[in-house]
Amino acid sequence: MTRWLKWGLGVAVFAGAVYLYYTEVKPVVIFGLRPEYAHAIPFQKIPEGLTSLKAESCGQCHREIYEEWKTSIHAHAYEDPFFQAYWKKDKHIWICLNCHTPLENQQPTLVKEIPRGRVEKAAQEPNPHFDAALQKESITCAACHVRDGVILGPFDDSAAPHPTKFDPSFRNAQFCSRCHNVVSGPAQFYNVGPCGTYAEYEGKYFMQERGFICQSCHMPEVDRPVAENGPIRRGRRHLWRGGHDPDMVKRAVAIQVKVDPPAPKPGQQLTVALTLTNAGAGHKIPTGDPDRHFTVEFAVKDGQQVLAEKRHTMGRWIMWQPAIVELYDNRLLPLASREYAFAYRMPEASKGLTLQARVRYHILTDGQHEMLKTKYGLMADDPYAFTVYEREVPLNGALASALADPLPEPPAMACMSPSNAPQG
């Protein structure tokens, strides 16, 4: 009886521990809370001189900025099919809206209390000011520029038909930190959170030594009237191109390929070395969502038949169960490089054979994409992987000249210059 009692007590303690873990410890979402985004941006009223908070109202005067915003991922952050699929996977947890539809006006419920900081235990009530049309505008103009009935901006000499106020925060990188600086939550062990681009950037080389800010690349400077018929002044484009834009990713990396020996002979071992450099980003690459990664791929092919291949992966490896733990991170810091190699012994007859070197950027894995389609209704045709670099050349003595493109001038210097440094 004593032995059975001990077994029973043991099982009860174990079951209790499992229950407490899954109800009180295990994370429901992959990030924790900070005061800045634990709640939506408080309700905003329409400033005098405007007809609504909708972007189209702003676009009546700020036409070019409005047209740029419409092309941005900020403008589609809520309706984005990838977000909708992931949000469904996360049981439509409310906290996601604090970045994807950040205004209280855009959210169907109001969060009144968050016991012990636990997102899933938050007390909510219907929002009487919810505007469903405004919600579809995602990160709309008012999310950044409207506070307390006043239009905030980076200029202190505005002459506009509505109340304006100079806000110096528009001229520093911290402005982006509310949503791009997610921290870890309970039972989560990250060095940097899953959307921690700002944390990777803060205080580093580009900011301290070069004076660059996030806006330097993601909102490039432009000389133009800020509003219709206004004076020409130096402002910024409202594009926010980033990890979903192939051209932006290509500008961030520099690639150099070398072969040894330069003119391989039959029977010799050929070594191909591809160097990937984070030449143009002031944060790690890839950054943001931990699903993002690069692959460096080599292959020797005979027509469509692959005779030999090798694939390297650069990204983050995270264990999601039973706790969230970052196991490995081999992403590239700003200005860092890494060499990836492939060895192949030259055959006696190489006629018709080709050597392929390729670098690809992945927003998510094939398995994750299939999971989102089959389980969570993802219907997007948007590419979730694209090629950054690719060369396929005959496997002969001309390899060196065919593959070894010169290392370009770092794109960072092209997209950011001292004139992009913070002003004021």
TrEMBL record:
It comes from the Bacteria. Gene3D superfamilies: Flavocytochrome C3, Chain A (1.10.1130.10). InterPro entries: Multihaem_cyt_sf. SUPFAM superfamilies: Multiheme cytochromes (SSF48695). This is MULTIHEME_CYTC domain-containing protein.
